[in-house]
Design a protein that fits this description.
Radius of gyration: 16 Å
Strand content: under 5%
Oligomer: single chain
Distance between the termini: 41 Å
Order of helices and strands: HHHHHH
Helix content: 55-70%
Length: about 100
Amino acid sequence: MKKIASVVMMSALLGLSGNVLAGDAGAGKAKAATCAGCHGAAGVSNNPLWPNLAGQQAGYLVKQMKAFRDGSRNDPMMSPMAKPLSDADIDNLAAYYSGL
């Protein structure tokens, strides 16, 4: 019984943390106008040099954007684009693109 209670509690905490960390897809869509030039209006790039963002996992997108922003990943085009983004901006963009 104690093990079941622990599993239920962990599931509840994980569900709660996911909700707290989730971005706002509507705000992400508005912010994504800048991204559309390279990654396409619907997150599907027409150039093989730029990845498709539509349908990517939100966690992956967050990790990559933060890496561009903090300099642990460097790209002459993406790094300057990511520099001014807040954590909320990145979460919102990830929520938008992962939902496409």
